[in-house]
Amino acid sequence: MAKGRIRARLRRSNLYTFACIRSHGGEREEPHQFQGPGFSRIVYCNEPIRHVKKPIKYCSNYISTTKYNIITFLPKAIFEQFRRVANLYFLLAACLAVIGFSPFSQWSIVAPLAFVVGLSMAKEAVEDWRRFIQDMKVNMRKARVHKGDGVFGPKPWMKLRVGDVVKLEKDKFFPADLLLVSSSYEDGICYVETMNLDGETNLKVKRALEVTLPLDDDINFKDFTGKILCEDPNPNLYTFVGNVEYDRQVYPLDPSQILLRDSKLRNTAYVYGVVIFTGHDSKVMQNRTPSPSKRSRIEKQMDKIIYVLFSLLMLISLISSFGFAVKTRFQMPRWWYMQPYNKSSPYDRNKPLWSKIQASLYDHNKPFSSGFYHWLTALILYGYLIPISLYVSIEVVKVLQAMFINKDIHMYDEETETCAQARTSNLNEELGQVDTILSDKTGTLTCNQMDFLKCSIAGMAYGTRSSEVELAAMRQMALNLDGQDSELTHKSGEHISKIELETVATCEEEQYQKPLIKGFSFEDNRIMHGNWLKEPNVDVILLFFRILAVCHTAIPETNEETGGFTYEAESPDEGAFLVAAREFGLEFCKRTQSTIFVRERDPYSKEPIQREYKILNLLDFTSKRKRMSVIVRDEDGQLLLLCKGADSIIFDRLSKNGRMYEEATTKHLKDYGEAGLRTLALAYRKLEEAEYSAWNNEFIKAKTSIGGDREAMLERVSDQMEKDLILVGATAVEDKLQKGVPQCIDKLAQAGLKIWVLTGDKLETAINIGLAVKDNIVTQITNASRMIKLEKDPHAAFALIIDGKTLAYALEDDLKHQFLNLAIDCASVICCRVSPKQKALVTRLVKQGTGKMTLAIGDGANDVGMIQEADVGVGISGVEGMQAVMASDFAIAQFRFLERLLLVHGHWCYKRIAQMICYFIYKNIAFGLTLFYFEAFAGFSGQSAYEDPYMLLFNVVLTSLPVISLGVFEQDVSAEICLQFPALYQQGPKNLFFNWYKIFGWIGNGLYTSIMIFFLNIIFFYIQPFRSSGQTADMSAVGTTMFTCIIWAVNCQIALTMTHFTWIQHLFIWGSVATWYLFLLVYGMMSPVYSANGFQLLVEALAPAPLYWCATLIVTLSCNFPYLAHISFERCFHPMDHHIIQEMKYYKKDVKDSHMWTRERSKARQETKIGFTARVDAKIRQLREKLTKKYSSLPSQVILPPS
Fold it and tell me: Looking at the record's lineage, which domain of life comes first (predicted)?
């Protein structure tokens, strides 16, 4: 918009009644009187240099969403690591090892702990660095700032200071909280989109003070100064109290002069503003909470498992120490050859402490001391029961899983060239356990585009195109009938209905292939192309079109490319109505201060005729009024009130003579609502001159009044005029969701996820809580809960609708649980006009009240608190604001990608991590308990059965890669199957793979494996000759054979656990086994100084002995046979969902028996009362009823059997 053109022709403030109130009586409002704390902020306009020293030095405009900084990283990261119980245990073990209690070398204990903690901290640092980079992208955005002498130049956002004068141009974001000084409009009006703050698409009207309107050009700021005294930083988005001192006068400030950070300038060429709040003082940042430290529930449950394993460790250590104490007390005196005790050493004060402890270790006179010292040694010896390497493996696996999420081509948005991003890999498995999704609406679900699709005029329905819901219902019903052909062959009526449905659906789809006009998908030749003249009630139809063309606040702009007009409207609904009016033949083409010009196409000559409508008053739309009216004088001098609004509001204001079309229109509105369309009713009223004149005097008096009751007076006077209306018709527009959103919500609902969304859809059954009085709220909640319990219709769907003011009461401690119980019983929960903090509180209530996993998804700064509070936060990238992304755990470009993120990656990650942890517990118990058995067998001496290198290699090399491949590559079913059978997702929320039954089952499996490995080997080697010359096996041979059996058993076990193999899994599993033999060979070839008892062990002792190979084979089979039997029994007699699908895919039922495959797919969805499927099912029920009525009137046909 050119500045001069707009400023010369239009004072926009005169158009508004409620949105932009300014007194016209020439009286100046009194400045605010501040009392008490909270109003200490002083801002010197255009003098930022004065804010560099205290006490008026304020924070910079730099923002940070990172968890750490240079100072806090080390302490906070270390704290995070030692929140893990296993790490605490190994810290204790490392301390004991340093003292000297360890049976192993000190470094064998300290090095793994340092490696685990260091690697985890490095990962945290890398992920936080990425957050820092995204923060800097925002901080380095440029804004034009006054540098002096009336010159404006670019400056990064992060360097803005309180008091700076900033110039913002159209479609730019505000870099800080600003005081509006002037705009490109003559009267200081500007339009602001606050979608990032409150999710609303309607543009907000802001106005500058009249005294600052002359500051309308760069040069005018050369000598500009002023002083602002206002409230301190606070999170209240909708309030502001302050005064500005300018030109020796003091003027009051209110929220209509404040431009909030992260909102966007729209429909205005430019504005000037003074920075009031910067950085974390700004209201949007005040609504943020510090970046939380989130831990997954599986990781928390791992701590409980560690407690169980630690209890087991304590138990066997106590058994070992008790056995050692008994041995020391009763048998040590007879073991004279060991010379364990020197009487003088405990009393020799020159000896170091450890020498005294060693002397006391075998003192038969102090069995309790001996037992205690041995207990400390046993805690370290059996430490392999506590899987410290599990944490490292999980960290590696989660990073690799995050890489696969980031590289998923199916979650790549070509339009914005944006990939999915796992901003933290700690919560991958949480994606597979989500129970409730809390979603923002605007920008997240909708693309802020309305399409005019149907209308009802004079009781007649127009518009032949079907909505997405209707099309899907017809296709689904045709599919269902196709599957029932065998049952319906004797019913010719049913067969005809199927053909009709398929034909209609196909025709509709062909129509949609035609090029459409943006905002206009209407199709009906009865009123298109001037044919409406042939319809009855021509005058009513023309009035309907005129209401669309005149009743609005939009501005026309000439499109230089096409020569036509585009409309800058406050809401997408208005834009769609104007496009519809143009296509019907009435084109809104010009607007002046008090006049609207409409170019009407003459239906006979086809020539345009420009008609003029004088705008006398405009009663604009607000969320409270739910209607908009204009009072106009047409070319014939007739006074008309034209009104559009919610049907419930309009119908209440109809006159007795104006209800002629009410019954038919109500039926059409119900049909439109069931088709998923947004509706408005249109009405009018003819006015007499005397009546209007008297009313206008009252209206002007109310509009120019001063005081807190001005808005109430305006509302009362408006109500006096907006009555006795005559109904004209209704509109139905389709709220265009983002690509794939209906299918995504539908699939998520079928997966059993509860979805709380902010939506404007018309609902068949709604529980409205709208009175902000606490006693009334309690009564309404009680009555609503009773209503749901008494409802007998199984298809009834209740929705809970609540606004922000009422929600403040509902979230109080004595009421929030009743509110939550009611919300849980409803199919949908709609929270309107809620603040960012309330979104976070609702999320916290759901998370803590239900104990279930929550996921929050949004795209704006108003969603940050909700995203951070939820167990999993997802930000929408690829849109203008990045605040939600910077606060999120995962970022996707479109809402539709949430389907794949949860149903595919979430499902896989949960099962992979769960199986990986269970397997890790199994293998560590199988390995660790053999040490206990051997120590008991060796007289509780603390002797390990295995060489130190074996112990180090077990978790690091020989069993690590297979378990990582399990965590990264395992798939119970493919991605396509996950999407086709959404009910599979419920395995995660039900926690079928990581419950205590499964965990103790794997612990039992590990216990059984350890018993078989130790005792079978002892039986094989105890008295049998091992070599051909007759010698029996020594400790090295037995220990190495046992270790070989462990390697084979645990690797075969993981092979049985996997259901999806690639060459990588085979390489890792069988390569690990081969690596063990290769290590034995190389280790045995080393000098005895290094290999000790392992020198030439494989070549000379084990490999030539048939007993070694036989023992390995028998023990491995014995260890894995019970698990093989268990999974075979489970698949045959108690199969899980994925077992059945695996078998169907194996036998190619999806190709050979498509009917069976389709039937099973239809079963594999949770029953839902929300989303696309719920609407489709409701529409199918309606179509069935219509078809039944249609064909019940036909004579029944009798089919005679063949003679």
Answer: Eukaryota
Q: Which two tokens stand for residue 585?
A: 């033949």
Instruction: For residue 669, give the 3-state DSSP assignment.
Output: helix
pTM given for the model: 0.74
Task: List the single range of 603-612, 966-975, 1076-1085 with lowest mean pLDDT.
Answer: 603-612
Active-site residue identified among 440, 803, 863, 972: 440
pLDDT class for 3, splitting at 50, 70, 90?
A: very low
* pLDDT tier for residue 905 given thresholds of 50, 70 and 90: very high
Q: Distance between CA atoms of 44 and 41, rounded to whole angstroms?
A: 10
Helix-helix angle 388-406:85-99, to 10 degrees: 140
CB 1017 within 8 A of CB 1009: no
- Contact, 530 vs 601, CB < 8 A? yes
The two structure tokens encoding residue 1061? 């193999």
By C-alpha distance, which of 1029, 1055, 1025 is closest to 1037? 1025
Residue 168 tokens read as 């913002």
Contacts of 19 (CB under 8 A, 6+ apart): 204, 205, 620, 622
Element (H, E) at 1114: helix 1106-1133
| pLDDT value for 1069 | 94
The bridge status of strand 142-148 relative to strand 608-619 is: unpaired
Angle between helices 1106-1133 and 1035-1057 (to 10 degrees): 30
Tell me the C-alpha distance between 178 and 262, whole Å: 11
Quote the pLDDT of residue 56: 82
Angle formed by the axes of helices 468-483 and 492-512, to 10°?
Answer: 140
Contact between residue 520 and residue 583 where contact means Cβ atoms under 8 Å apart? yes
Q: End-to-end alpha-carbon separation of the chain, Å? A: 85
pLDDT of amino acid 360? 57
Report whether pLDDT(289) > 80.
no
**440 assigned to active site:** yes
For 861-875, what is the mean pLDDT?
85
| Count, residues in the chain | 1203
> Got the DSSP string for 174-215?
PSSEEEEEEESSTT-EEEEE-HHHH---SPEEEE--GGGTT-
Structural contact between residues 675 and 466, judged by C-beta atoms closer than 8 angstroms: yes
User: Would residue 339 be called left, alpha or beta, if left means φ above 0 and alpha means ψ between -120 and 50 degrees?
Assistant: left
Taking only Cα atoms into account, the Rg of the chain, rounded to an integer number of angstroms, comes to 38
More confident residue, 231 or 885: 231
Phi, psi values for residue 369, rounded to 5°: -65, -40
Please tell me whether the peptide bond between 1025 and the residue prior to it is cis, using omega within 30 degrees of 0. no
Structure tokens at 479: 């599919």
CA 290 to chain centre: 18
Other Cβ atoms closer than 10 A to 1004: 13
Taking residues 767-789, report their average pLDDT.
66
Per-residue DSSP letter, 517:
B
Report the alpha-carbon distance of residue 1047 to residue 959 in Å, rounded: 8
Report the SS3 class of residue 829. strand
- The 10s digit of each residue's pLDDT in 185-236 is 887 888 888 776 765 666 788 889 889 989 989 998 988 999 999 889 988 8
Whether 1004 and 437 have beta carbons less than 8 Å apart is answered as no
Sign of CA dihedral 465, 469, 475, 477: negative
At 1198, list the tokens: 């009798």
Query: Which residues are CB-neighbours of 70 under 8 A, at least 6 positions away?
Result: none
CA distance 229 to 735: 44
Note the helical H segments in 231-291: 283-286
Among candidates 929, 1049, 941, which has minimal Cα distance to 385? 929
What does the block give as tokens for 757? 């969304």
Q: Sheet containing 41-45: which strands, arranged edge to edge?
A: 41-45, 226-230, 242-246, 249-253
Main-chain phi, psi angles of 920, to 5 degrees: -60, -45
In whole angstroms, give the CA distance from residue 938 to residue 378.
14
